[in-house]
Amino acid sequence: MVTKRPPTASQTRRSRKRELTEDHLAATALKLFDAHGFEAVTMEQIAAAADVAKGTLYNHFPVKEALLAYLFRQEIATGMQQLHGALQSQKTFAARMRFLLRESARWNESRRAYMPHYLRFRTLDVGAPAGSDRQQRHSSGSQGILEALFRAGQDSGEVRKDLSPSKLASLFEFMCFGAVVVWLGEPDGDLNERFQFGLDVLLNGAAS
């Protein structure tokens, strides 16, 4: 078996520097997006506002949508950390999932203006090899969280065990993706209502 060597000090420093640079670029881009609208902002404007060369920006983020994916991944990770205690306090699997969906609906509503751009960008990941660099960089990180929730549901006997937590989490994410797509086409639609309906079908099935 081949074991990976731990990163050297220089590799760790490069990783930290890259992360700090990407944090700065993403924060700068979000300020411009909020001030002027996503479509009006150019990559050149982002580079100028961040005081970096255009080549540096493109080296980290080839398109504006990649900046959104980076920002959203951070926001989702931070949000899940903040919700951990409240999520674990829910007594049943169904209650935990309903709570998570309500919070997810609130976050999607706060980022509604950006969601069409983000979702179009994420659909480019379809067909990419599992665990590929692109998937890892652009993923929201929700897959692992959902897998843990489904695994806990299986351990408590509330969720069927003939499907892996990974498959169940993927099915759940596709359900949420579809709900968001439909909601974006309905100016007065209720995203949480769509989420909860999808969860009901997922938990209870569509059979009469």
What's the quick description here?
This protein has helices at residues 9-36, 43-50, 54-60, 64-88, 93-110, 115-122, 133-138, 142-155, 165-184, 191-204.
Explain the layout of strands and helices.
Elements lengths: L8 H28 L6 H8 L3 H7 L3 H25 L4 H18 L4 H8 L10 H6 L3 H14 L9 H20 L6 H14 L4
Helix pairs in contact: 1-2, 1-4, 2-3, 4-6, 5-10, 8-9, 9-10
Can you describe what's shown?
With 208 residues, this protein is an all-alpha fold. It has 2 domains: 8-62, Homeodomain-like (Arc Repressor Mutant, subunit A); 65-204, Tetracycline Repressor, domain 2 (Orthogonal Bundle), CATH 1.10.357. Helix content is 71%, strand content 0%. The chain is built from 10 helices and no strands. It has helices spanning 9-36, 43-50, 54-60, 64-88, 93-110, 115-122, 133-138, 142-155, 165-184, 191-204. Helix 5 runs antiparallel to helix 10 and helix 8 (142-155) packs across helix 9 (165-184). The protein is globular. The chain starts with 8 loop residues before the first helix and ends with a helix. The model has no long low-confidence stretch (mean pLDDT 88).
Question: Keywords for this structure?
Answer:
globular; 208 residues; Tetracycline Repressor, domain 2; 2 domains; mainly alpha; single chain; Arc Repressor Mutant, subunit A
What is the radius of gyration?
Answer: 19 Å
Which architecture of the largest domain does the CATH hierarchy give at level 2?
A: Orthogonal Bundle
**Residue share in β-strands:** under 5%
Provide the domain count: 2
Number of strands: 0
CATH topology of the largest domain: Tetracycline Repressor, domain 2
Unreliable sequence segments: none
Reading the helices and strands in chain order gives HHHHHHHHHH
Alpha-carbon distance between the two ends: 51 Å
* Helical content class: over 70%
Shape: globular
Class from helix and strand fractions? mainly alpha
CATH class of the largest domain: Mainly Alpha
Q: Describe the biggest sheet?
A: none
Instruction: State the assembly state of the protein chains.
Output: single chain
**Overall pLDDT metric:** 88
